[in-house]
Write a structure and sequence with these properties.
The structure is a single chain. This protein is mainly alpha-helical and about 40 residues long. It has two helices and no strands. It starts with a helix and ends in a 13-residue tail after the last helix. This is DNA-binding NarL/FixJ family response regulator. GO terms for molecular function: DNA binding. Keywords: DNA-binding. It comes from Streptomyces umbrinus.
Length: about 40
């Protein structure tokens, strides 16, 4: 489990789970991208 969390934190370019959660709490994340037509 630690390896999976570490990989996610690396992709988000943060060093802690708290840093990863802050944008979601403050509403800075965009809505989910819509799938492209024909995919």
């Amino acid at each position: 489990m630690k390896d999976h969390v570490g990989a996610i934190l690396t992709k988000l370019r943060v060093t802690s789970r708290t840093q990863a959660a802050l944008p979601a709490q403050t509403g800075l994340l965009d809505e989910r991208p819509q799938p492209e037509a024909g995919r």
